[in-house]
């Protein structure tokens, strides 16, 4: 009778192969019809991380195959730590029994029970995802704790992927084989924010400027929730916001309009405007994955200083913050010189500014600008662009007393950014013509003398006639 003898290692391998399949069965996996093949302890092993954005609902658990479907854009530049759980040996049946219920948080919470590798390149690695969001690390067979570390700010990650365990090799359900090249697809919650100032309009100080934030809705990853969503905009000192105006902050999520006081609150401390979503507002976010949050904030321009007024916003989600770009509006001014036709300055000429629709532009409530004792007309506080190329129509409304408007009373002038000391135009008024008085000894005097003599002769004739009539009656 022939006798077959198995080595101890072969019996162990066969045993933990069976336990691994039992572990899969415990998680509800469908077991293959064939028995599991033995693990090859000499087979090279690797872990490949594919980093993507979370989009929509969480997908099905991964199988470890490179062909697992994945949605969401890849994220490059994300650092991960891979550390071996040195107390768990995949060559032991007890390890597979432990893995039936073991999760990453329990490993992290019990370092004495589950010590982690600390020797770089041997049982601990730090890896960074490449342009396609993936990175591959060759490792010995074993159980590994994988944790997301840091990511570039441009990635916009606000909720990291949760720590997770990777077992190498991984049982393959369909065939009963072993996968030594395990692929994992951790996702992170990302957001982004763009800040814009409203499009240019012809307007002056005291006018409204609306700042618009365009924010990506954060989609929570498996096992996480969006517990806080806060928008902070620190307003420039030259801007004012009316906190009591409930319509001065407007928010939509996709096509849904949020209600102030119900879905979000607004507070203003100094120049810091804080918008915080309530639980109801966050529920709207959760119901609208892959949508955009639009936030409109109204402000009033009170002064312009050097001319450039910039604002940025910070979005804080679950304590992680991302900062927007800086958006700016620009204001400036011009000066005119009012002279007479001899070049002497004239005080008292009145000018106004007119927009493209023919409406007079108010600057800080003023609509008229008068030349001073030096003939200078300062018109400061008109909105312009970064290049100082926006133009306005400047109109002379009235000349100083004793002078008349010139042939040209309107000028189209560009408004440079900031305080401007240069003179954009010299405006000349002519003095009114002198009144034509009669000249002494001239024809004018003779005319008066002739007129006076005529009056005297008329009066003398009248007297003579009256005397004659009186003599005849006497």
Give keywords:
single chain, 474 residues, alpha+beta, Immunoglobulin-like, 3 domains, 6-stranded antiparallel beta sheet, 5-stranded antiparallel beta sheet, 15% helix, 36% strand
Q: How are the SSEs ordered, and which strands pair?
A:
Layout (H helix, E strand, L loop, with lengths): L7 H19 L18 E6 L1 E2 L25 E6 L8 H7 L4 H6 L14 E5 L5 E6 L2 E7 L8 E3 L4 E5 L1 E2 L6 E2 L1 E4 L2 E4 L2 E5 L10 E9 L12 E6 L4 E2 L8 E5 L2 E2 L6 E6 L2 E6 L1 H9 L4 E10 L6 E4 L1 E5 L2 E4 L3 E14 L9 E5 L14 E2 L5 E9 L6 E8 L4 E2 L5 E5 L8 E9 L11 H31 L1
Parallel strand pairs: 1-11, 2-12, 25-32
Antiparallel strand pairs: 1-5, 3-4, 3-6, 6-8, 7-12, 9-10, 13-14, 14-21, 15-20, 15-23, 16-21, 17-18, 17-21, 19-20, 22-25, 23-24, 25-28, 26-27, 26-29, 29-31, 30-32
Helix pairs in contact: 1-2
């Amino acid at each position: 009778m022939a006798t077959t003898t198995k080595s101890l290692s072969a019996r162990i391998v066969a045993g933990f192969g069976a336990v691994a399949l039992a572990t899969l069965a415990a998680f509800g996996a469908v077991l293959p019809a064939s028995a599991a093949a033995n693990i090859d302890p000499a087979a090279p092993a690797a872990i490949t991380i594919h980093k993507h954005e979370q989009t929509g609902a969480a997908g099905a658990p991964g199988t470890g195959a490179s062909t697992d479907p994945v949605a969401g854009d890849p994220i490059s530049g994300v650092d991960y730590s891979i550390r071996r759980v040195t107390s768990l040996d995949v060559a032991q049946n007890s390890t597979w029994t432990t893995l039936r219920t073991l999760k990453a948080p329990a490993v992290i919470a019990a370092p004495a029970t589950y010590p982690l590798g600390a020797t770089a390149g041997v049982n601990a690695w730090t890896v960074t995802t490449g342009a396609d969001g993936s990175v591959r690390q060759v490792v010995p067979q074993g159980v590994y704790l994988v944790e997301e570390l840091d990511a570039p700010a441009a990635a916009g990650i606000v909720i990291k992927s949760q720590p997770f365990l990777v077992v190498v090799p991984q049982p393959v359900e369909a065939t009963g084989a072993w996968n030594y090249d395990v692929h994992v697809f951790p996702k992170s919650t990302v957001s982004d924010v763009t800040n814009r100032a409203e499009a240019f309009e012809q307007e002056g100080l005291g006018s409204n400027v609306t700042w618009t934030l365009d924010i990506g809705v954060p989609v929570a990853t498996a096992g996480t929730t969006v517990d806080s969503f806060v928008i902070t905009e620190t307003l420039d000192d030259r801007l004012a916001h009316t906190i009591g105006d409930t319509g001065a902050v407007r928010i939509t999520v996709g096509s849904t309009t949020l209600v102030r006081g119900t879905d979000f609150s607004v507070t203003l401390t100094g120049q810091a405007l804080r918008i915080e979503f309530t639980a109801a507002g966050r529920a709207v976010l959760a119901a609208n994955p892959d949508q955009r949050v639009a936030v409109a904030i109204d402000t009033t321009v009170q002064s312009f200083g050097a001319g450039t007024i910039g604002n940025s916003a910070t979005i804080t989600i679950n304590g992680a913050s991302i900062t927007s770009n800086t958006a700016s509006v620009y204001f400036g001014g011009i000066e005119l010189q009012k002279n007479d036709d001899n070049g002497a300055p004239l005080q008292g000429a009145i000018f106004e500014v007119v927009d493209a629709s023919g409406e007079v532009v108010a600057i800080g409530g003023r609509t008229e600008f008068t030349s001073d004792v030096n003939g200078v007309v300062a018109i400061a506080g008109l909105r312009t662009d970064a290049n100082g190329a926006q133009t306005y129509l400047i109109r002379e409304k009235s000349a100083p007393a004793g002078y008349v408007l010139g042939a040209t009373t309107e000028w189209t002038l560009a408004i440079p950014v900031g305080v401007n000391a240069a003179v954009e135009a010299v405006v000349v008024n002519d003095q009114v013509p002198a009144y034509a008085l009669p000249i002494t000894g001239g024809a004018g005097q003779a005319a008066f003398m002739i007129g006076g003599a005529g009056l005297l002769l008329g009066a003398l004739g009248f007297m003579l006639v009256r005397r004659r009539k009186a003599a005849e009656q006497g």
